[in-house]
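Self-study notes.
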Amino acid sequence: MPHRPAYDAAILVPRARVLRADATPAERDLWAIVRGGKLGVRFRRQQPIGPYIVDFYCSAAGLVVELDGAGHAQRAEYDARRTEWLQQHGLSVLRFANAEVLDRPQEVYRRIMASIRTLTLAREGAPVPLPRGERD
């Protein structure tokens, strides 16, 4: 399991709560896909990691899933620095446009599952989790 860098809880935790309460439609749809261990692993939403709050985080796979809305085009440089920082701290980052989540949720599901399986296998030969409904 990757080490999750410390964060300033006094600032980031209240902000994360606000972000969870004000979720976009795409964030709500993606949460419906990943919540409750449906993919065989647990995700957290609006999770503080270091100086950032990531949209979705799976500690078992070391996976961050980020959703990019229309405003992200103006934040490309910031997003690149943020992704680089997360990767330097041992995390993989998977990005989706909001439209992908809203229009092609099955494709988003497949890509997240493929990432989880790949990352889980890479971690000391750990067993690959199966989504709920595909387990014995």
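Second protein, same conventions, sequence then structure:
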Amino acid sequence: MSLTAIDMITDALRVANIIDENETPSAEQGVAALRSLNQMIAQWIADGVRIPWHVVDELDDELPIDIKDQRAIKYSLARELAGEYGVELLPDAQRIAEQTYTGIVKRYSPQTEMTLDHLPYPSGYPHFYTWPME
């Protein structure tokens, strides 16, 4: 299922209660929210969240995201836009934004494991464990 930038922006503005459910964003709101969306994802990438993304230039462009990532981006964008518009995000929306962002981080952050297989160990000691490095 493809999703355009304006679809995502409209959903996020509605989650943040910036526009009503029957309203559409103004041209200015759309352009500003698209800029915020690109900046938000760029910050995620800079922070080590390697989500597949390219800058989206037009509101009618399809977003380069999988359906499993749409909810996290929508609620995170709603949180960003709420701050920009000076509105309070509802607690449920805030919780969803936090939980789904955590899922994005787990999915797209590089995982490094350490093994001690190369070290000498006493006979009978289990040496096949790996430990996540955080």
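Instructor comment on the second fold: The chain has a mean pLDDT of 90.
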